[in-house]
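Complex 366.
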Amino acid sequence: MSAPDSPAPDSAWDDASVERSIASAEAAIAAAQSTAELKAVRLAHDGPKSALALANRAVGGLAPQLRRAAGARVGAARHRVATALAERQDQLQAVELTAQLAAERVDVTLPVDLAPPGQPHPISALMEQLGDVFVAMGWEIAEGPELEAAWMNFDALNMGPHHPARATSDTLFVDPVEHNLVMRTHTSPVQIRTMLSRPLPIYIVCPGQVYRADEFDATHVPVFHQIEGLVVDRGITLGHLKGALDHLARAMFGQVRTRIRPSYFPFTEPSAEIDLECFVCHGASVDQPDAPCRTCSSEGWIEWGGCGVVNPRVLAACGVDAEVYSGFAFGMGVERTLMFRNAAADMRDMVEGDIRFSRALKGGAR
Ligand code: DAH
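Predicted structure with 3,4-dihydroxyphenylalanine bound:
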């Protein structure tokens, strides 16, 4: 370090250095195109590590006879830089404010929809679409009451007096219990009502609301919807059932693989579950513990509904000659179908009545 009384010509506080610092600060200030850029310039030219701040610090170590003039020079230079910074800050801020106001401009004259039109509930819309798939093939829509005779809901469907589904824990019985009236637990009693009232052959679907003493959680609601199908004609086989279900699956989900898997229902023999290929992993998660699929529990398939060949005992209960006629039936949950089709993760959203849910699902459209 040079002695204070014989300064080197390029000391930080000498005239030439200070002028250079001012010139480079002013050039940088003028070049800054935004307040953000100017912030960096301020740090470089007016910050604690800037050339002028260092010069100021060096002045403190000078001999008294040099300190006064050097201090005044550095002080004036810092003032000049600070003033230039403040002026540029004002200019840039004004430009930025103008740009922001232009960008955030709101046209208050635009019309406002104070009463937007409603939306069909996605479940209602989907029930209609499900029905339409069959109406297009010439089937009919059948309906039945939601308050149903236990005989229609159970006995005629070959569900004996001790069938577990009849327990009060699953079924909502209506007082007085001796009257044997229940809130229907499925749409299957409409099969019975139809066979008892319509001429053969029968090709019907029944979309409707059903009731169970069930939990209220993401995958269960106590009041939900099913669609039931029933065909009774001469020569009906399991092949016709698979064809009808594949057609429905394609109409609902596009190109999707289906399978029927043996199961048990009292009202069909043989009985099956209809499964859809998992629409998330498409089977890739099967036997792959490192890449499990939560949607299908790594099964590759998801259960959609139940089906089967109508049990001759059910045909007999309705006075249909099982020697001449045979039939198939199926039933599936509409809420479940909506969950798969529109990736609606929580069934509770379907009953809470928030219009945003209906709008998001565009009334159930795909
Ligand atoms: N009723 C059944 C249920 O609620 C669903 C069902 C299964 C309907 C098989 C059918 C069928 O028509 O054949 O779980």
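The pocket of 3,4-dihydroxyphenylalanine is lined by residues 186, 188, 228, 265, 268, 306-308, 329-331 (CB under 6 Å).
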